[in-house]
Amino acid sequence: MKENELLTVFKERGALLEGHFRLTSGLHSNRYIQCAKVLMYPDLAEELCTKLAAHFKGLDVDLVVGPAIGGIIVAQEVGRALGVKAMFTEREQGKMTLRRGFEIKAGERVVVVEDVVTTGGSTREVIELVKAQGGVLIGVASLVDRHSGDLDFGVPYYSLLKLQIDTYDPADCPLCRDGLPVVKPGSRS
């Protein structure tokens, strides 16, 4: 599936929203990607994540990790496609952690995956956790890359769809100035 076909899938499934949104990062935007609206279709989740996984074939991956909530399905499907374990991290008292008996063994080769990367903050938190547990980060991937500016995870980063979407500091948001109500559709309040 090419980028323009993938964008069409996101639009048809109602995953590309228009309006005034407060992102997890705190920034505001006029567009929002809700990957869950695409991932709720198991056939699409499998197809897209298999395509992500193909980027890491032959790299001797031991484990795929994604942050809850957006990265859970992506990690599971990429792990399935690679034939390796998959797990997810969760926030506990504001800090990314491993729970539910999950552990990363020293030396395990890890790919970190996400549904959408905006600032890269959640992804970086997962990377720090992987390294703190002794894992070896070998790659990062997401379904959608909507970041702007500099983004360096220290390893190759791959995404299926790159979108240029404006973001605004809340203090200088034209949508706020126009009086449009702001919506927080993400997984963190």
Automatic annotation (TrEMBL):
Pfam families: Pribosyltran. It is an enzyme of class 2 (transferase). Belongs to the purine/pyrimidine phosphoribosyltransferase family. PyrE subfamily. The gene is pyrE. Orotate binds at residues 118, 146. Transmembrane segments: none annotated. GO terms for molecular function: magnesium ion binding; orotate phosphoribosyltransferase activity. It catalyses: orotidine 5'-phosphate + diphosphate = orotate + 5-phospho-alpha-D-ribose 1-diphosphate. Homodimer. Keywords: Glycosyltransferase, Magnesium, Pyrimidine biosynthesis, Transferase. Residues 57-164 form the Phosphoribosyltransferase domain. 5-phospho-alpha-D-ribose 1-diphosphate binds at residues 114-122. Its EC number is 2.4.2.10. SUPFAM superfamilies: PRTase-like (SSF53271). The keyword Cytoplasm does not apply. It comes from Thermacetogenium phaeum (strain ATCC BAA-254 / DSM 26808 / PB). Pathway: Pyrimidine metabolism; UMP biosynthesis via de novo pathway; UMP from orotate: step 1/2. Its cofactor is Mg(2+). This is Orotate phosphoribosyltransferase.
